[in-house]
Structure formats: structure tokens, C-alpha cells
Amino acid sequence: MSFLENILAAKQAEIAAARNLKPQAELERLAAKREDFRGFAESLARPGVRVIAEIKRASPSLGDIRPDLHPGDLALAYQAGGAAAVSVLTEPAFFKGSAKDLKRAREVVELPVLRKDFILDPYQVYETAAMGADAMLLIVRILDDERLSSLLALAHGVGLETLVEIHDEADAKRIAALDVPVVGINNRDLERFQTDVDRAARLAARLPRGAAVVAASGIRDEADIRKSLATGLRRFLVGETLVKAADPTALLKQWISLPVPQILNS
Q: Is 115 helix (H, G, I), strand (E, B) or coil?
């Protein structure tokens, strides 16, 4: 089985176990009480280099990255560096994340917080709202058209914004008719976890004007940021590099201070 097949099989089992512990009706009640959502797309729309800074303990391809990280401390470092938002991996089996990581990060910062996980089921949408996230990841590759559309509608119905992730031209075609304000282009192939850092720039050219495009995976240094800016990208989701950085605040400030062509500030 591929990395992705293993992750999805584990996720289905995780969802089934979670239903036994907490019925969906209870999550629906908690989600309905939410009134404190922070503007995810609004933050990404502000001028300049915009970075979604990620809290990630491990990954299937790398193993442990920083399993002992403190999500609150890291979130505060990201906020001090000027991050546009914080992304938190909540997948437990392969990324060693949890809802607790997300809650601890969000309670200490004022930034919008993205839940990054493998969302397959309406149960997880209510779960995402109930745990305090402001936005959630939806991966086109793992959802059929009907499920993608229904999860988008449900997310927006409970107040959640979305980052809709694509990887190739086929994914891009599938979202063409949908209302998707923020599109993430994953430079990493989820089947084999191989990364092509130039993929986002190539694929972004095929997306409708007006979509806020976020390049994800493989951004490692200032040279990568500068190269992406030259191709028309100014929004990034960065995890491993920031998690490993001795001073993530300083690194973010360095990136965010880079000049952006005026035409990109939209």
C-alpha cells in the first residue's frame, strides 16, 4: 500500500472509534455554539508575503521532526514573526498530532488556525469546528466530486473556511466549478511523498484569476521564496523548515520582509 492508502485506512478506523466515544450530535451542538471565528482568507489577502506557519511533529516520509515541540510556544513564535495563520497537524498515527495541539496553539495567539488533517466525513467537519479551528484542509485527491462539494458546503454552513488542496491538472479541473476562495497547491505527491517545488508555479497558471493560491511543501529557504515570488506566488504553507528552525520568528520576519511585485498584492 502507498503512504496515502495507509493513512486513509487508519483515518477511517479513527473516525469509527471517535464516533463511539463522542456522538456526532454532541459535536453538532458544540459547533453550533461557535461565534469566535477568525478570518483565514482575509488574513491571506493582506499585502506582502503571507505565510501559513505549520506545527508538525512528524511525517510519514521523514519520521520524527520535533516530537517534543510545545504547540503554544511555537504558535507564539510564529505570530511574533508575522505569520498570516497557523496550521496544526491533528492526524495522530503518522504525524503524531492531536486536537490538543490545535487547542493549545489557538488559545495563545490571535491568528486564524487551520486544521490540517485527512477530512473524509461530515463527522470531522463538526469535530473541526468543535475543537476551535477557523479553517480546515480539504484534499481533492481523496474525495469524489459529491463528497468534496458536500463537505465544502457543510464547512461553510458551520462557519469554517477551507483550504482546498490540489496537486495536478486533473484536480484543478475538478474544482473549476466550485466556489473555492483559497486553493493550496501541494508540491508533494501524497502517493509517494516526492516533492517538486516548481509544481505550484506551473499549476497556478491554470487556475482562475481571483483565487488566493497557496504553495505548500518544499519551501526551505529565502531562495525558494524569491523564486516563487518571481513566478507570481506570494502565499506559502511551510512546516518542516520552520519547525526545525532555531529561531522561527527571525526566519519568518526575513521572508516576510522580501519585496513583492506590486501586481501580486491582490
A: strand
Question: Which three three-digit cell numbers place residue 11?
Answer: 483515518
- The interaxial angle of helices 248-256 and 71-81, nearest 10 deg, is 30
Coil/strand/helix, residue 218: coil
Written as one string, the DSSP assignment of 43-104 is HHHSSS-EEEEEE-SEETTTEES-TT--HHHHHHHHHHHT-SEEEEE---TTT---HHHHHH
CA-CA distance, 101 to 99, in Å (whole number)?
5
pLDDT tens column, 103-143: 999 999 999 999 999 999 999 999 999 999 999 999 999 99
Helix and strand counts by DSSP (H, E) for the chain: 12, 12
User: What is the value of pTM for the model shown?
Assistant: 0.94
Residues 152-192 pLDDT 10s? 999 999 999 999 999 888 999 999 889 899 999 987 766 56
Any alpha helices (H) in 112-210, and if so which ranges?
A: 122-131, 145-157, 169-174, 199-204
